Amino acid sequence: MSSVLCLFCAWLTYRAIQKSNCYHREGHNAPCSYEDTSSMLLFGAVQVVMSQIPDFHNMKWLSMLAAIMSFAYSFIGFGLGLAQVIKNGTIKGSINGVPAANIADKLWLVFQALGDIAFAYPYSGIVLEIQDTLKSPPPENKTMKKASIIAVSLTTFFYLCCGCFGYAAFGNNTPGNLLTGFGFYEPYWLVDLANACIILHLVGGYQIFGQPVFAFAERWFINRFPNSWFVNNYYTNKHRWFPSFQTNPLKICFRTAYVASTTAIAMMFPYFNQVLGVLGALNFWPLAIYFPVEMRIVQKKIQSWTRKWVALKSFSFVCLLVTIVAFIGSIQGLINAKFE
């Protein structure tokens, strides 16, 4: 699901770059509309090539590029929001948030927002895969714990800064995405740069979420068909302009089919916030809460109905409720966006 969102976001971002240049040339009220999905197909084609990276161990350069791009567009979004607040000379919006016609509509918006927030930390599904690439000493789990604390702290800082300053800058008119939703038109080149950084970040993001799927599926095929040449044979390719590399028929076919299927699904759901909320809700409780909590209970051998057991189970149950209401709210928003 995260792979689908990466594809969709890449298409949305590329379209924003086209619109940004159009608005700069023809004015902010110009009818600049770009609904062509060829850019999504192009991104999918890039991912077909990138998906042939063997595994996480060979993704160091791509991960570093994605991290740099992430910092770049986050700083730009934060800076543009702060500059807009200073330019306005006042803080827009209110503690009550975006008004709604009635309480029911307000609840739907709150539920959808919970889904958006839930999607902010979907990395738990790949933590063990990343940890497997670390060297020791020190122990991998200690290194990963330190890395997770730093990563979550930085992510929270930038999300809060971009979200708070974006709302302070535009109030109730804040777009779902400050950069692709045109909270900012000028300087257009800076907005284009930030969006280009997003696209490059998504190239790496897609692979980070896709590699665990590839690894799981390929392990299953190897165990299921241990004598198959299609599954187990590797062929070395040499080219005078590129380093030699190995290919495997299963990897080529399965990974290409995976990218093609996620591209097709992404083309069916062109509603950013609503899709974000749905995917966030589906990922949040099972991957980020339930399994880590259950593993903690088993690892530490926490007895049933002890204080720690009750606290962990209560936390998991509350997060389950958040997931349910976020999913319902996001589905309602997706239906409204589809038929409005």
From TrEMBL:
It comes from Gossypium raimondii (Peruvian cotton). Residues 1-18 form the signal peptide. InterPro entries: AA_transpt_TM. It is found in: Membrane. Its main location: membrane. GO terms for cellular component: membrane. Keywords: Amino-acid transport, Membrane, Signal, Transmembrane, Transmembrane helix, Transport. The keyword Ion transport does not apply. The chain crosses the membrane at residues 61-83, 149-168, 275-293, 314-335. This is Amino acid transporter transmembrane domain-containing protein. GO terms for biological process: amino acid transport. It holds the Pfam family Aa_trans. Residues 5-335 form the Amino acid transporter transmembrane domain.
